[in-house]
Amino acid sequence: MDDRKIQIFIDSLLPLLKAGVAFTIPLTLISFALGLILAILTALARLSNIGVLRQLARFYVWIIRGTPLLLQLFIIFYGLPSVGITLDPFPAAVIGFTLSVGAYGSEIVRAAILSIPNGQWEAADSLGMTRIQALRRIILPQAARVSVPPLANSFISLVKDTSLAGTITYVELFKKSQQITATTYEPLLIYSEAGLIYLLFCTVLSALQNNLERRLARYSAR
Hints:
Blueprint: H1 3-47, H2 51-66, H3 69-79, H4 89-114, H5 118-126, H6 131-161, H7 173-184, H8 187-221
Helix pairs in contact: 1-2, 1-4, 1-7, 1-8, 2-4, 3-4, 4-6, 5-6, 6-8, 7-8
């Protein structure tokens, strides 16, 4: 690597890190938090005895899982203005990623709830608990431990998926790398540098995930 490329690498490192920390990470955290709430509500709707709720939840999951995330972002940001709904890039990205996390996460949560033995429900009923009380006090805490690993994987995947937000003009890490590439004409260098930063973020998150899983395993073993 010649001196010019080294200097470009050094000069672009801080702007890329800033874009990652100031834009990619907040977008990921907000979208995942909202998506997780939506996932729990959707999973409960899928498991409810109310037919309308169950069918609406199933339809939502079917639509989101059956269409590309990039297409959904384009519909939200570029399509909705044709019906009078105009959103800035950040809220459009949050809505798109939240809907995606909610749909995929609901299947994880639903499977975790279904993995709890029926005896747990029966024990709660024998203690005089309502279904909601049993769900809140007994079922969901156990389901949470089961769903942590796949949900953590979804969170790490979301960090990388946020690169799609650049297609709707939101200047996150990948979009910033495109802007720098347009001025330096060094696509291999800049995109590789952006990839290293994504790798750094995901490595840290994977380490946190492993630590959380070990803590939950010790808790479950007691």
